[in-house]
Design brief:
This protein is of the alpha/beta class and 100 residues long. It has helices spanning 2-15, 32-46, 64-75, 86-99; strands spanning 25-28, 52-55, 79-82. Helix 1 crosses helix 2 and helix 2 (32-46) runs parallel beside helix 3 (64-75). The longest helix is centred in the middle third of the chain and has 15 residues, at 32-46.
Length: 100
């Protein structure tokens, strides 16, 4: 996960000028791909960005490396929004559309 996260974070920094000034939202599930996203978010935060993570699961449902990386994200005091239902997603999705 760490290697994948490093590669993705580096790609994003190279691809997008002024990344630290951009709105970054990382959508994560509870599995390994979600863990990859959490690594990316943490690395971007460490490089001066302010990403927000949206977790589509109860935090207690994460396991293994994904849970380790969720804990690391939370320890970094990164923004975490938990979405476990369409009732929680719908207003957030509308707020995203308004920001684009």
């Amino acid at each position: 996960m760490e290697n994948a996260g490093v590669a993705i974070a580096e790609f994003l920094r190279q691809k997008f000028d002024g990344l630290a000034q951009r709105k970054i939202i990382v959508l994560c599930g509870k599995g390994n791909n979600g863990g990859d996203g959490l690594v990316v978010a943490r690395l971007l935060k460490e490089s001066g960005c302010s990403p927000e993570v949206v977790l589509f699961a109860d935090p207690g449902a994460t396991e293994g490396d994904a849970a380790v990386n969720l804990k690391r994200w939370q320890q970094s005091l990164g923004k975490l929004r938990v979405v476990t239902s369409s009732a929680e997603w719908d207003p957030f999705e509308r707020s995203l559309a308004a920001r684009i």
